[in-house]
Write a structure and sequence with these properties.
Elements (H helix, E strand, L loop, with lengths): L4 E7 L5 H12 L4 E3 L8 E8 L6 H4 L4 E9 L1 E3 L8 E4 L7 H9 L3 E5 L8 E2 L2 E2 H6 L9 E16 L2 E10 L5 H12 L3 E11 L2 E2 L6 H6 L4 E2 H8 L2 E3 L2 H8 L14 E4 L5 E8 L2 E7 L2
Length: about 290
């Protein structure tokens, strides 16, 4: 079995995130594998997985910023807000100008309330929303706060009776790029959906360190848990006495910024735990030794 750490996969189209987890379990020789944020089958790109005790990092990694490249198709709406769904309506786009598109996309930037796509993995009364839609139910999800830090428009081009718009997005976890396409299309009065989606980064892990499953089959590359923790969280290097306290879960006399968990390390560089400030002392969020 491989050492605990993170595996950064460049997911191929057509695979579910669970398909990738199953493949990595076989390659790693352990069932203790999980992922930090689902990618739809249509989507490609960065999928971060944890192996062994590094799976406990994943819930914290899901709070990090993500980046995507996408193509929005204006002029048609679908049941899934992407190209895998059935077309529900079409509209002419000859009255939609490039400046109109840019202006509507600009309204998506910042702290916004976004209604997730109905075929998301969000649970409604214990059942995934996409499963309810598949069973013929009408699903209406509540708007949730998300942050879109940057949205860049790269190209706009007419494709038959439709208009394709290539964009790049940096956003908080929990943002649905499909919902951006849906909402911008609705605002322009023509409908919209995604035809392509590629996740280019999850936190500090981007396509430069990602490997396809075929590449991992030849050379199973794991980011060691200590390296992953130092890259993903603010780091604090402890002395021996503090490290001994961490190993038994004691609070530390530190003054950490209160905005995020901090990764704490022993003098030899071993990753010990995630700590956060609670009152006058720092306390353990999760201990990894």
């Amino acid at each position: 079995m491989v050492d605990p750490g993170l595996v950064v996969v460049d997911k191929s189209p057509g695979m579910t995130s669970h398909d990738v987890v199953a493949r990595v379990r076989r390659l790693a020789g352990t069932r203790k594998v999980g992922h930090a944020g689902t990618l739809d089958p249509m989507a490609t790109g960065v999928l971060v997985l944890g192996v062994d005790r590094a799976t406990r990092l994943l819930g914290h990694l899901m709070l990090t910023e993500k980046a995507y490249d996408a193509t929005v198709r204006l002029g048609a709406s679908t049941t899934t807000d992407d190209a895998e769904g059935e077309v529900t309506s079409t509209h002419r786009v000859d009255g939609v100008g490039a400046d109109d598109v840019r202006a509507q996309l600009a309204t998506q930037v910042g702290d916004i309330l976004q209604v997730p796509t109905a075929v998301s993995a969000i649970k409604v009364d214990g059942k995934r929303a996409y499963a309810r839609v598949r069973d013929g139910e009408q699903v209406e999800l509540k708007a949730r706060p998300v942050t879109i830090r940057e949205l860049v428009v790269h190209d706009q081009r007419v494709v038959g009776d439709l208009l394709d718009v290539d964009i790049s997005v940096r956003c908080s976890s929990g943002t649905y790029i499909r919902a951006i396409a849906r909402d911008v299309g609705a605002a322009l009065g023509v409908g919209g959906h995604l035809t392509a989606l590629r996740r280019t980064a999850v936190g500090p892990f981007d396509l430069d360190v990602a490997r396809t499953l075929d590449e991992l089959s030849d050379d199973f590359a794991v980011v060691p848990i200590s390296v992953a923790a130092r890259a993903s969280f603010p780091a604090v290097d402890l002395d021996e006495e503090q490290a001994a306290d961490v190993r038994v879960g004691r609070a530390l006399d530190l003054a950490l910024p209160a905005d995020a968990p901090h990764a704490v390390f022993a003098p030899d560089g071993q990753f010990l735990a995630l700590y956060e400030q609670r009152g006058e002392r720092a306390r353990a969020v999760a201990v990894f030794v």
